[in-house]
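In this section we walk through a basic example: taking a raw amino acid sequence and producing a predicted 3D structure, encoded as discrete structure tokens. The instruction is simple. Fold the sequence below.
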Amino acid sequence: MAAGANVHDAGDATFEREAIERSKTVPVVVDLWAPWCAPCRSLGPILERLAEEHGGAFELVKVNVDESPATARALAVRSIPTVIALRDGRVVSQFEGALPEASVRRFLEAVLPTRADGLVAEGRRFADAGHLDTAESRYREALTLDARHPGALLALAALMGDREDTAPALELLERIGPGLPESEAADRLAAALRTRGAAAGFDEAGLRARLAACDGDLDARVDLGLGLAAAGRHEEALETLLDALRRDPKHRDEAARRAMIDLFALLGADHPLTQRYRSALARALFR
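The resulting token sequence is shown next.
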């Protein structure tokens, strides 16, 4: 049985809450064990001691696989002990077998929050309280420690975007690589910033007059689509941009295609407009 403020038991009915959801707040280390397993009896006390030693920097969740077969299957446990580290609801590291304490400590070093993580967390608390200058200083300090820290890059870019420092915000977002928990939010924020930029000086009546005078004015058609997107008129924007793309996909460095992709990111992959116009875009490009 688990003991201590930072050590908990979980089973099939509670694993989602005690481990997956909890890991969105604090790192969780899951110890999958069984009472008959001698290596488990060796490793378990090490993990429990380190959990208490770290004083809440992570929580240890112990799962008896004999009593929780569904959890063991879901985690694809092949042998025990198996130790799995969770952060933000995702598996970030794991090992099998009874490691010596020194090896377990090295495993934890790669799992526990860094000083940069802590600064970002502080920054978010200051931002939530409205202390934006202090929040920004925390994010920038985090980036001096880890220049590619995705949480710091995203949070700082959001602050800069809110005050319309669009170009430097986009430069920060470009440093967030794919496949990270922050990647989707970074793509959406970048799309929103680029789309919003077209709002300045949007003259819908003037652009429509230009198109009435010359239906082939692609600059006017693209600018109309961009302005409609910035105004939140997404379906009109996508239809206008698709029309421009069909006439000349390469016009203005593929501006229509890039603007449509930004709108897809902004709306989300499951939005009906994204699904309809993504297919239309593919047909137009590969006809």
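Looking at the output, two observations stand out. The two ends are 64 Å apart (CA to CA). Residues 221 and 244 are 6 Å apart (CA to CA). In the next section we compare this with other chains.
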